[in-house]
Amino acid sequence: MPQRHKDGLMFDHWEIAWWKLQIWNLTQFEKLIWLDSDAILTRSIDWLFDRPWMWSQRDDWFCDLNVPKVCSGIVLIYPDEKDFEGLLKYAAEESPTDWIPIARPMRPGAEADPRQPDRIVVDLYTCIGTVRSGGYQNTNDHYSNMCFSHRLDHQLFTVGDENLNMCHFHPLAAWWRMLFCEAVTRIGLSMPDISSFCSDECWYQGKTPEYDGAQTCGPLSTTINYDDYVAKTAARPFEG
Predict the structure, then answer these.
(1) How far apart are CA 62 and CA 64, in angstroms?
(2) Which whole-number Å values give the CA distances from 97 to 5, 60, 140, 165, 224, in the listed order?
(3) Which of 128, 118, 120, 121 is nearest to 148 (CA)?
(4) CB-side neighbour CA atoms (13 Å) of 165
(5) Residues 95, 96, 98, 102, CA torsion sign
(6) 43 burial class (0-12, 13-18, 19+ CB within 10 angstroms)?
(7) N or C: which end of the chain has fewer CB within 10 A?
(8) Rounded Cα–Cα distance for residues 80 and 111 (Å)
(9) Could you tell me which InterPro entries the record lists for this protein (predicted)?
(10) Within a 10 A sphere around the Cβ of 87, how many other Cβ atoms?
(11) What is the pTM of this model?
């Protein structure tokens, strides 16, 4: 990523998203569907391969509906080395506020923009049921993706006098965790923070494993009952 783009990032780890451009070099495939690791499929998406040109979800972070901006969390692409070179050239020439290259023409004769399915087909987790969920105070910050991440320090909150993992209350959080932990097991990835996140004693019971690099898992209250907390003080990040 060019330095002038790095200087404008809200979070340093967003630089990792730049690596996505390399999928245009996977030219052993005619088409491919890219999914971010925090995506969840609820049914087959094979039908996307029958669609002409690129498709992507909308970058509708605040659930405004019909936002034209592209989100690369789920995108159908046609890999092409010339397009890859065009994307890099576009990003090098544009300003940091408008560098997102996948929404721009990549080479002469290429169609301009990815097409976008309706929100009933693909949607951001923040807009589930048209109500924001899985974030904290409706902002785009470290807490906004907390229930689809292995970072436990963003999931622990205090409500009234109770210490909770707030992602226990998200209907898709446990499902995503199961898929994530199955995936890292299949590829043989072993890291202390991931191992603690994938421990049921850690995530459900708040018991921190006793090894170097383990995440702090609690302590947590023993009950997971939404009715016990709905009328209490608003949640605040855990300070234990």
Answers:
(1) 6
(2) 8, 17, 16, 35, 42
(3) 128
(4) 28
(5) positive
(6) exposed
(7) C
(8) 14
(9) GNT1/Glycosyltrans_8 (IPR050587), Nucleotide-diphossugar_trans (IPR029044)
(10) 20
(11) 0.55
